[in-house]
Known about the structure:
By secondary structure, the protein is an alpha+beta fold. The chain contains eleven helices and 39 strands.
Amino acid sequence: MKKYSxxxxxxxxxxxxxxxxxxxxPTYAQGIPTDLNKAYSLTNGKSYDTNEALVEYTTPxxxxxxxxxxxxxxxxxxxxxxxxxNYINFLAGLEEDNNINNISPNYIRKFSSLxxxxxxxxxxxxxIIHAPIVENSGFNSSLGGTSxxxxxxxxxxxxxxxxxxxxxGTQYAQAPGLSYTNFVDPYNALAxxxxxxxxxxxxxxxxxxxxxxxxxxxxxxxxDSSGSNLYGTAGIAFNTSIMPIEIGxxxxxxxxxxxxxxxxxxxxxxxxxxxxxxxxxxxSIEETEIExxxxxxxxxxxxSGNTGxxxxxxxxxxxxxxxxxxxxxxxxxxxxxxxxxxxxxxCQTIVxxxxxxxxxxxxxxxxxxxxGNVTSYTEFSNESxxxxxxxxxxxxxxxxxxxxxxxxxxxxxxxxxxxxxxxxIGGINTTYGYGMLNINxxxxxxxxxxxxxxxxxxxxxxSFGNNLNYGNLSNVVYKPVDLVTTSNGYYILTSxxxxxxxxxxxxxxxxxxxxxxxxxxxxxxSSTPDGKGYYILTTxxxxxxxxxxxxxxxxxxxxxxxxxxxxxxxxxxxxxxxNGYYILTLxxxxxxxxxxxxxxxxxxxxNPxxxxxxxxxxxxxxxxxxxxxxxxxxxxxxxxxxxxxxxxxxxxxxxxxxxxxxGGYYILTKxxxxxxxxxxxxxxxxxDKSYPPVTLN
Length: 697
């Protein structure tokens, strides 16, 4: 007799490895490995100005010499090459370590700016993007957003305070244009990366690039009453907060410092990360770190690059990064702006005006930055610069304004909002993405447009409204039984327990990989809210956890529970905070686990019903139960908007799924039709398709 549900967590993630191989002997190889081919492939045959590598451990070392490595998080370290060892040999030694899952050379990134000495007297980009500060009559402080929204500017630092370096006597001043800007959680990732702990929290700009980028987002507004130009020009989201993170200097940006900076932004609750940097070389470790930021609800915005090529630079080229190109004074693509798609299949998301020989920007930074001749860190002037470095912060600022108005959004919703609000240039295409940034149009959308996905019995996923489609199952052998979405992807569960991932949904394991074959079929999957794990429910009521999903109990563990035909479990549903879940049975009983709140069930209704339950669907402070006669039952504060029960029709009207949206819901019937209730908008159905639907999400 089973006494408890077996919890097995598998990590079988298949990682797209452009620059990596598999790893098989000691971390520090002292001899010369016999096979250097994999090590050469790690560098793509190129030479890099670095003596370090980023290493992702499967099993982190219990002890590691701080002189040999810098810890980024529990699994990722920057490993230094022994002085006497060749770099390729060093990589080959790492390549052979069984405890290492991933390796990347510590690439040097560069800033995506194109400084020039052309001067203008106003910010010509602002009316083009319909920035609220110029689109409204008269100045209003509410046009600049709110300080609770934080943009992490990962750059050369920011001239955010007055400071004198005690070791050199070098003086740094706060940029006058940033005098009224709110700064939070400053961090010098470059200093931490280099072991300069005394400067770890002083991201003072030593270049001028980061100051200019920060000014585009949040430089002071309406403070220049003296006419002295001390405060430069207005930032687009001037009331929002900047998290200044220094990741590089005039020598470039070590990849390790960049990743340290991203981790800092994650750990300190940034809402948006701006990366105005570029490189032609992808790194799977960098991609993993950026995925982690996105999975933590952070929108990552990056410049497309200044190569002028039809391939995005990195990090803009990674999936789900908002890639921003630059346009010129004629409204067409600037000659230097990279565009199109990357080898990782991320495509240009949007464009913003910067200029090309005719600059459209005007912001403050160190005097002489436009000519590459900065001689003082205490003198500032307003300058015109070009490059995709300065298109990205315009979009970061737009996102900050939106989240100031409507609250924090998932990165997936932000992409949809940009798609819906942008001004298309020649239609949606890879050259311009969704088109030109239009902030006023963005702010008119009070909530992301609704959408839904329908999973078909053949493994197809049909996406409607503004839902993004990430792919389908092909060559289906076992029946698809459930579909669940994450912020930027989805999972499909099949009856044999296999889990298929699409978009950025991460694979953590499946029932299919459990060594002892299962007798019971898998019937339902539910993702954790942070996208870092999921649950699988089987027909005997057992709950299996994968990734970070916490186990709170199962039907299998309930004393006295005995599965019958009427009380067979049919679905598992995670609570919004991830600290509990519900299991629904065929007879309408709702079982709560963890901190899931019980509001009632069909099982407790005094007049027994002859119909069976189809599913449970949550809302704030309540839930709905759908039955196979089309009736919708409300519990807690769930609001009733109508049901199929009141619609006269043929047996094909039998419902199989419900999706709740703000102020309404959808019902999917077994013939593929979609019915809308409340303010749910209809976008289409698979009523005319030859295959039947499985579920709605």
